[in-house]
Amino acid sequence: MEVPLLVTDFLRRAGALYADKTAVVDGSRRYSYSQLQARVHKLAHALRRLGVERGDRVCILSPNSHFFLESFYGTSLIGAVLVPLNYRLVAADHEYILNHAGVKVVLVDHELTSVIDEIRPQLKTVQHWIVAQDEGDAPAGWTDWEALVAPESETAPEAIDQDENELVSINYTSGTTARPKGVMLTHRNCTINAYGLIAHLGVRHEDVELWTLPMFHCNGWGGVYALTGVGGTHVILRAVDGPEIWRLIAEENVTFACMAPAVLRTILDTPEGQRAAVTTRPRFTVAGAPPPSAFIERLERDLGWEFLQIYGLTETAPLLTVSRPDHHTRQDDWPRRARAGVAGLGVEMVLLDDEDKPVPQDGATVGEVCARSNVVFKGYWEQPEETARAIRDGYFHTGDLGVWDATGSIHIVDRKKDVIISGGENISSPEIEDALFQHPGVLECAVIGVPHEKWGETPKALVVLREGASATPDELIAFCRERLAHFKCPTSIELVEALPRTATGKLQKYKLREQFWGEGQRRVN
Amino acid sequence: MEVPLLVTDFLRRAGALYADKTAVVDGSRRYSYSQLQARVHKLAHALRRLGVERGDRVCILSPNSHFFLESFYGTSLIGAVLVPLNYRLVAADHEYILNHAGVKVVLVDHELTSVIDEIRPQLKTVQHWIVAQDEGDAPAGWTDWEALVAPESETAPEAIDQDENELVSINYTSGTTARPKGVMLTHRNCTINAYGLIAHLGVRHEDVELWTLPMFHCNGWGGVYALTGVGGTHVILRAVDGPEIWRLIAEENVTFACMAPAVLRTILDTPEGQRAAVTTRPRFTVAGAPPPSAFIERLERDLGWEFLQIYGLTETAPLLTVSRPDHHTRQDDWPRRARAGVAGLGVEMVLLDDEDKPVPQDGATVGEVCARSNVVFKGYWEQPEETARAIRDGYFHTGDLGVWDATGSIHIVDRKKDVIISGGENISSPEIEDALFQHPGVLECAVIGVPHEKWGETPKALVVLREGASATPDELIAFCRERLAHFKCPTSIELVEALPRTATGKLQKYKLREQFWGEGQRRVN
Questions:
Q1: Looking at the domain assignment, is residue A462 inside a domain?
Q2: Mean pLDDT value across residues B121-143
Q3: Do the Cβ atoms of A188 and B2 come within 8 Å?
Q4: Residue A457 lies in a domain
Q5: How many CB pairs under 8 A join A and B?
Q6: A139-164 core/surface letters (b: 16 or more CB in 10 A; e: else)
Q7: In chain B, which residues have their Cβ closer than 8 Å to the Cβ of A20?
Q8: How far is A274 from chain B (nearest CA, A)?
Q9: Global confidence as pTM
Q10: CATH code at A503?
Q11: Which residues in A lie closer than 8 A to residue B378 (C-beta atoms)?
Q12: Is pLDDT at B427 greater than 90 in this prediction?
């Protein structure tokens, strides 16, 4: 018997088996699985009533919240496609994405409606504007989420005959150009990824997960499905704050969390006096950049908690590799444990040279990290040429450069694509360069990622001024901040005489990065 | 990206990542994952050389052994279909199955070649006869496995373009009639089942599994795939023996085992003086009948080991439900923990009445246990009418009768089909009745399952003799033993005056069973 692998199955199971268990804790609100399921059903009915049909796009712009969690299932249940927006982007980015994806309904957190109002006239396809708030009146031009769903039935909407290769979501990510790309994830991608999380991160019924990770990031990393499927409890964290995280871990008996290294640092750096007394031994899964070894040691040796490093991309749903103590990895071998690690179940990894031939597993030869798996995305929304560039000869090419050893353990050392990853978010260098080029004094510029203690990497611009021009680095940074989301702006600018180029005039960013990354092999974080 | 879900992926991963880790311990032999993989590759090449093509059937008749483990992967790698035989059957059963499945190659353990030699002239499709033995000469008419694979390459055979809905194996099971049915399991069935085992049985990298379960049973329960995929270690047990099990648990640091209740009893009943000192805390998964609560208590409270009850059938690859401590189940609620439990991930369970309507979840109303899932088999080999009977209206009908409560917890109470499950093996009542009817003194008979301390159930025959006939129960049992595999023979026979029938003359086995199953609701084990 072949039954489609659908992400909605995870909530169906929890709703049927753990109706009275706490599904989600969000501030003072607590919903059991039957309540969560009822809310999801009501949302699905309401979206249908608004005219949302199978394949239609619905976006959500929100910090973590129970509404966000509900939106994943509410859309999938009726075959709609969720477009989770990064709330760190500026209005112009949202405008591009909403129009590119052809979004019909926007679901927006009450603190972010003004961002959308700013671009409302330019949003050609949006028909409905829903504001998510637990209380208060909806602003003008917005329909209140709770009022919208109130009249709807709590029973499951009529099932549709879905195929597992239909879309769950489109996740926009900065690419090698300034133009964001919409990563299409299918039910099959997300289901297999959730099984991988359960297998490798040990997600289980007893888990209480603190959402230290933004739900918009990599489709919520699949935790939305894995944790729900086993009937665990979601604890919402709206904004990263050290003492608040300690409080929630202690009060909600948190056992599990996923985070970028910057969040791990915030937790470890919370002063003793602001730490609540924790009695659980939470597992912390870190992705994005590997944290310094010292962090892992502090977490495992000093706190007695558990550390797991994983690696993946939005394009891979995201879990590709995992690093944990195993046959080859001692618990206290912190540097090895900070690596990307080894391929998960159902994932075939290979490091390829420029001619797409595997590089030797010698721990030294650099190759592009490539993957073949059911977690690899379906393609970029309406950008078939970009899809063909990324998935070729049966492998998804991540754009990350790594080395691997005889045990299959992968260590990321550099990035082929011109992307900076800061605090877990992708930043496109060309996008910053485009902004700088708008300044009349800028003749040439190159933006690279340089190491940053908290964010892993941060953008740095090297600028050659036109003859006679006199802009200062601070002026140029301020110029960028007027045009770009703040997290994308260079944190330092250096005025230089010239940029290193090849004989054919091609900019050698590799050489620029070298001077900032010291002796080691690694030039990304 | 859609990549076929193939069971061969589990060994590919372990071979690539854990080459030097012990894959299998079989007596004095120990093979690492690279050795196991090399042996599997050599077998695959050898089978190809013998003319085995995609879709061809290869059978194995063997107690647990490293050869058996190798046969699963060696066949799947080249798209061949494994037919694992139950070594408790008699030659006539094997003859039927081998001819029905049209087997091309037989792989047979050195202790069992004579069983096959007995029926050799009747096996019309078999072309090659391979004997599995670690040492010694092959008997006449048999090719030695080691000699066969010796000249072959250790590298992976050329990949074939397999579909995930192609067959992995055909597992013959006794049905409601005397005619065995071949359960076809696909790559997709087995892969999703393995993910379920990993999720619900917590199968992990550190696991050392003792094969207390025969590998022929339910396609090895999927442990062949799940444990291999995470790089655990298989410890072979050739025959169930209490002190030997204790020795292996202690010496190999066993952490995990699957078994029928009879094996659990053997382990618990091993006298103190014959128990090796165990330092691990193994998890024991029990399937088939639920063990008495006292067994669970002895295992968890006295030994400090872990108990998990699961439920499934060969037709479901097999994992359907799992019972473990959870939101609704206290650790010491032994009777609840002995139940079949709740649906696993990706499994939709429902209890249906005779009109295929769901029965209320009141813990009292009896319905047939039905499932909709990717673990449900593809159908019965060349018996489409049986397939249509078993899978209808989108649900596989197990033939087991149960009750379920508001938490979705299922308790099996009776069986719709005329099957007795003794020591985990299906026995067809009509097959025994057919044998009894061959006796000239038997006028009428009915075979039912009655409770048995060790085997859960055992067949009992109620016989009405012809007037003037004078056979004793012992004579009738001896008569059966000449015609049937020993495990299928009645262990008791009662001579009665008449059998209860409905007005239309239909035999009421339900009434017969009542008197042997006491007060409770349950009439199967």
A1: yes
A2: 96
A3: yes
A4: yes
A5: 110
A6: eeebebbbebbeebeeebbeeeebeb
A7: 327
A8: 32
A9: 0.90
A10: 3.30.300.30
A11: 1
A12: no
